[in-house]
Write a structure and sequence with these properties.
The protein is mainly α. It has eight helices and four strands, in the order ββββαααααααα. The chain has a domain of 168 residues: Multidrug efflux transporter AcrB transmembrane domain (Multidrug efflux transporter AcrB transmembrane fold). A hairpin with a 2-residue loop joins β3 and β4. α2 runs parallel beside α5, α3 packs across α7 and α6 packs antiparallel against α7.
């Protein structure tokens, strides 16, 4: 390029090297932009034993330490999908908890009974997270699906105890004896539910091959989470029932009031 001839206004030709110094440099073949800002694409593969969420957290930590002001990281592809799915899953958790609570309150005709059952759910979710941590897993999209499933299963175990305790109270027993008898008589179906669900989840935990990561993540939430969660249910449900139901109406109050009103209407006719 230094020998390229340039034509001067006088008509003479001179080489380019006489007017400029050429230095070879390495540059990008194309210029990328992200949101109107200059960007550089960086791709990486995850090493064995490192999940995407952990890798993203580490990248953010390094970026905060090394990148100057005005520069940052924008995730694309699978990393961006993970962030979107996590934010959407939090909303799913909230909606699932609200729907379960409303259904329980309507079924029991008592907010207190619904609160007793729902108070055990956070402990069950914590147990599931503990199981994921012990097994070396991560809180990914598939394990979050298992957590939503766990909310419904835990609520069912609480229903078995609270519903029977309410029936015993309607029969005339006090709170303490009702919850003791309910726990003693309902521990078998609760344990049967737990054991059958855990054994049903074992094939997911032991699965291999294509797509095994998704099945294993859901399986550990069901097997480990439900196992620990059942223990929490058996111990915490009687405690919460004793503390909270004393502030609520007696079981069957609405039904008795409706029966009384019907009797009055019949007598008036």
């Amino acid at each position: 390029m230094s020998d390229i001839q340039l034509r001067l206004p006088s008509g003479e030709f001179v080489p380019l090297s006489s007017t400029a110094t050429l230095t070879p440099v390495v540059s990008q073949s194309s210029i990328e932009r992200q949101g109107g800002t200059l960007a550089v694409s960086v791709q990486a593969n995850l090493p064995d034993g490192v999940d995407l969420g952990t890798a993203m957290a580490r990248v953010d930590e390094l970026a905060a330490q090394t990148l100057p002001d005005g520069m940052g990281i924008v995730y694309t592809g699978e990393a961006a999908s993970l962030g979107d799915s996590q934010s959407g899953m939090y909303m799913v958790f909230g909606v699932a908890a609200i729907v379960v609570f409303l259904v329980l309150a309507a079924q029991f005709e008592s907010i207190a009974s619904a609160v007793v059952i729902m108070l055990t759910v956070p402990f069950g979710l914590a147990a599931a997270l503990l199981a994921i941590s012990i097994t070396g897993g991560s809180l990914n999209y598939y394990s979050q699906i298992g957590l939503v499933l766990l909310i419904g299963v835990m609520a069912k175990n609480g229903i078995l105890i609270v519903e029977f305790a309410n029936q015993l109270r309607e029969a005339g027993q006090d709170i303490d004896s009702a919850i003791r008898d309910a726990l003693r008589l309902r521990i078998r179906p609760v344990m049967m539910t737990m054991v059958s669900t855990v054994f049903g989840g074992l094939p997911l935990v032991l699965s291999s091959g294509a797509g095994a990561e998704a099945r294993v993540a859901v399986g550990w939430v069901i097997v480990g989470g439900l196992g620990f969660a059942t223990v929490f249910t058996l111990f915490l449900t009687p405690v919460f029932y004793r503390w909270i139901t004393v502030w609520g109406a007696e079981p069957g109050t609405s039904a008795r009031r409706l029966h009384k009103e019907r009797a009055l209407l019949t007598a008036a006719e």
